[in-house]
Amino acid sequence: MIQVLTLLYLPRSFAHILGIDIESGQYAVFGGIGAGKIETYIHRVKMKIGDYASEADVAFAVTNLVPNLLGRRDLFKTYEIQFKNMTEQTCFIKTRSMK
Q1: Would 73 disulfide with which of 6, 16, 22, 47, CB 3.0-4.6 Å?
Q2: Which domain range does residue 53 map to?
């Protein structure tokens, strides 16, 4: 079982918006979210944060009844992420060269 917080984790509707057929991805089941296990499909997704393009593995749930979770594996290698509670901002500061 893959540790869920290592990946970006999104509801099924995000895959639909991005035009991704989720069942074509790598099947994985995660525990520890909600009361039971959540079925997902993992896809490598291109993204852009500010001026920088990168890719990340994203686990799309088969349901929409799950939260959006920011995982560590890909984003935290390249960005310092600051959560500013007082201003309700999340800042991504590039720290390494992209591949």
Answers
A1: 6
A2: 4-71
